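User: I'll paste a sequence; please echo it back and then give the predicted structure.

Assistant: Echoing your sequence first, then the prediction.
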Amino acid sequence: MYKGKKVVVVLPAYNAALTLEKTYREIPFDLVDEVILCDDASKDNTSELARSIGIKHVIVHQNNKGYGGNQKSLYNKALELGGDIVIMLHPDYQYTPLLIPSMVNIIGEDLFPVVLGSRILGKGALAGGMPFYKFVANRLLTFTQNLLVNYKLSEYHTGYRAFSREVLQGIDFNANDDDFVFDNEMLSQIIFHDYQIAEVTCPTKYFEEASSINFRRSAKYGFGVLRVSGQHFLQKMGLLNLDRYRKPNN
């Protein structure tokens, strides 16, 4: 725990057997109280491996629900377990668990209720193996998003995120898409409801075993991101009334 606050790490997993244990072993368990893994109908032995290395809370989707659907299961379970600080960490070892103490500290000291691990702060993205087309798309999308949602982040596309319980209870993340655009819908909700966001520099690691989406899926994601940002702008202007921007009934 951190100053009486329960720390929960959630792992959205799909075919993560090759990298799961390496990721898990680097989690700082002197700080982290619970780990939850959601296996989104993997074709490998992800869930069996998770149990064998000591993960007590393993959710298994019998049918693939998508990246967003995976996160919904994880955040709901984290809240059910009483998590006060919830960190999403990909089990593909693309993001280092060694940043967890810094992210927990920022939220635990009530400095910011949301922390993102940014691959773009500094100059390490391309050096860490990020494909050039993804780097360019990241920069163009982020620039457009900052304009439309009236915020300033170095990137909206990192999968390394930490949230306070207040934030997870204050946005209706269950109303979001089940695919990859879920991440951007969630950030849009957070910004719409005036929660402040901190960023910490995160090393970039791309390698063969790390998960990644292909060009076609990347293009679909990019158009989805622009749609979400446009909807955010119109919602702020009072020209839309989308359910996902309503406060949930907890």
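The chain has a mean pLDDT of 93. The chain has nine helices and seven strands.
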